[in-house]
Amino acid sequence: MFDVVSNTSFDVTVDLTWTAYGERRHDNFNSHYNFEGYHFVYDHIGAFQFAEVSGTVSDGTTNLTPEFSQIAGSIFKGRTAIVSHSCD
Question: Are the beta carbons of 53 and 72 closer than 8 angstroms?
Fold first, then answer.
């Protein structure tokens, strides 16, 4: 962890449990770009689900995790591919 106020770094222990809820959602992005003799393809396929998070992030003395009601997150799994090549 890095503290920008004191300009110091320190170790933390992360012990979190993620519990998914609701339905799984899917996304798919595909883009093609052509410019100055190059062809660029971006392809992404993913799925995510909202999750409740519980547990601690600690520096050994202080629990740095906010109250449960302030924690939100999602579980994500995806595949991204980027291909580029010259068209010359």
Answer: yes
